[in-house]
Design a protein that fits this description.
mainly alpha, globular, transmembrane, ABC transporter permease, two-stranded antiparallel ribbon, transmembrane helix, 9 helices, ABC-type transporter activity
Length: 274
């Protein structure tokens, strides 16, 4: 019975998230990037120059590189911004519109509500990655064709093995975004203004990228959430180089646990009577 109530609450939350017009527009923007990249590359027909992993230049050789190139571009800002919008609405948005007080008088326990909110954010993270990968893959195959994928190690992967690698990359990046969502959920419990929560998480992400690019504080880099997001390219090696991937997942888990607990501690004592 308890699980059925949780599932009903989760279903209601997902319908609410999916029904917001700004979220729908955000998904369209995410999906449009790989399509625009594929068309631009087709029209310009760039030649690969070598010198390291260049996913954009590899598009012409295999359409499966389109979603990978799009992910490498969008993971910097577009995907984190999408997560910031979702997490800003999670608690602050409900408090701003007055529905948070109603939800907690249904009755729905605060812990159950917070778990439901975070699960919906995790699904949103996976959703955001999927709307890049699926359209990007389909458009890439339609324009550039497919076949064996050339890895960063110089070997070739069969088509379905390459697809499986893309699935793993998608899950890896979704895990990083889910950890970022935990940070956003905590920030969302600190304010009743969803825009403020969205801006705060966006600034957090930008500052993390800036700090990760400063060599003078390289001691801090392993502790930054964004530091190993680009390690997904190691899954394009043959065999995959998974050390940095596992380290990245460990950091993701640490952020998710710590910031969800902080959100719970804040939300458990939050005054929602006003």
């Amino acid at each position: 019975m308890a699980w059925s109530r949780v599932l009903r609450l989760l279903g209601s939350e997902l319908r609410l998230v999916a029904g917001r017009r700004r979220n729908q527009m955000g998904l369209l923007v995410l999906a449009a990037v790989p399509v625009l990249m594929a068309v631009a590359v087709k029209l310009s027909s760039p030649r690969r120059r070598g010198g390291g992993p260049d996913l954009l230049a590899s598009i012409t050789s295999n359409g499966l590189f389109v979603p990978l190139a799009a992910l490498s571009v969008e993971i910097g800002l577009f995907l984190p911004l999408a997560i910031a919008m979702l997490s800003g609405d999670a608690i602050a948005g409900e408090a701003n519109t007055g529905t948070l007080r109603y939800l907690l008088t249904v009755p729905v326990g605060r812990t159950r509500l917070l778990v439901t909110k975070y699960v919906s954010l995790c699904i949103g993270a996976l959703w955001g990655v999927a709307v890049i990968v699926v359209p990007g893959g389909l458009v890439g195959i339609a324009i550039f064709g497919t076949g064996p994928m050339l890895t960063l190690s110089g070997t070739q992967l069969p088509f379905w093995t390459a697809v499986w690698r893309i699935v793993l990359i998608s899950l890896y990046l979704a895990a990083g975004l889910a950890a970022l969502a935990a940070v956003g959920l905590f920030i969302s419990t600190l304010t009743e203004q969803p825009l403020a929560a969205t801006v705060a998480l966006t600034i957090f992400t930008i500052l993390s990228w800036i700090a990760d690019a400063v060599p003078q504080i390289d001691w801090l880099h392993p502790w930054l959430l964004v530091d190993r997001w680009m390690a997904f390219v190691d899954l394009l090696r043959d065999p995959p180089f998974t050390d940095t991937v596992w380290q990245g997942l460990g950091v993701d888990l640490g952020y998710a646990v710590v910031f969800w607990l902080l959100a719970w501690a804040r939300f458990a004592g939050k005054d929602i009577t006003n």
